Nucleotide sugar dehydrogenase (Bacteroides intestinalis), 425 residues
Amino acid sequence: MNYRICVVGLGYVGLPLARLFSTKYETIGFDMNQQRVDMLNAAHDSTLEVPDELLKEAINRYNFKCTTNIDDIRNCNFYIVAVPTPVDVNNRPDLKPLLNASETVGKVIKKGDIIVYESTVYPGVTEEECIPIVEVVSGLDFNIDFFVGYSPERINPGDKDHTVETIKKVTSGSTPQVADIIDKVYSSILINGTYKASSIKVAEASKIIENSQRDVNIAFMNELAKIFNAMGIDTNDVIEAASTKWNFIKLKPGLVGGHCISVDPYYLIQKAQVYGVLPRVMSAARRLNDGMGDYVASQVIKLMNKKGIMVKGARVLLLGITFKENCPDIRNTKIVDIYSTLKEYTDNIVVYDPWADPKAVFDEYGINILTSNWKRLEGQFDVVILGVAHKQFKNKDIRKLLRNDLGVVYDVKSTLSREQIDGRL
């Protein structure tokens, strides 16, 4: 069959996938953000997940295009939904983007079409929440007129090694025959192939435990960091020593932000409670990791007090605001928690990040940031906090940013030399 692909949602997940599909199939990207679509059609991706030269090749060589016009996607027959699945202010799953996307697809699908969901969800969302909307809007019957699959995204923002081409994708389908079709379509563009799950629910669950497992493991390391800091023991020294054993899993403490690890566990936590199961380990891990920004700020304040630095009105420099290094993604960054805690003591906080978009940061968090003129920062601050280990910060003499040697340098990422720092996580 001649598949015509439509990818709904052109963010960190959807765009790389659409670009890759365009090399083998007629592909169109759909997004509600006109500014985003215009930029992509001009061959630039502000997320930096797809290099401009690859995007330009997709447009010029493979006729890939993006649109906000629903009529442009009516001719497709294989729809992939890759919209965000965030949580609300109370950490409850927010399915509105996913349900809205299901309604959009329902308006255009025809008999025989296939819909594949990639958005991270708890087990059951695809069949219990999304499909009924598609049925109502389209007037078509599930598994008779149209078919559905689930293939969880595995995009790691900023990771240039584990790109969409090289990762192994889990696939699934609403019937055995459709599962085979979906698996073959995905296999045709992936270097390392696919794993066909036994059901859509299994595929959904496999995704959500990937990030929940990492959340729990990092929470353990963060708890160790608190214990060892209280005991005056360097946590990283302990980890290096322990990692000499062959079966020790080497992880480091840190801030857990972004759109995946810090969000996805809440989906499974809520669904577990519906079934009468209280997920104590996952819930405790979320609470611990969510509190690490405030903990870092408190550690910095202790160091300032020890050095006799007046906390009130102190000049503080935060290096980095994205949720991870060498990536412009600011979603759910925990650097903001450090900022908010220190803001209770001083208004003299400067945030410097050469990767972040100043407008996006201000729109999301109300914080003005600097992105250039490193030299002008030298000799200006009482405290410098390395929050994100961007490559631009490597091989820099961070202590030159302090007003004098009595200042404090705190290394959240444990990447600076011991000579440069006064404390680290």
Summary: The chain is about 35% helix and 10% strand. The chain has two domains: 4-206, 291-424. The longest strand covers residues 4-8.
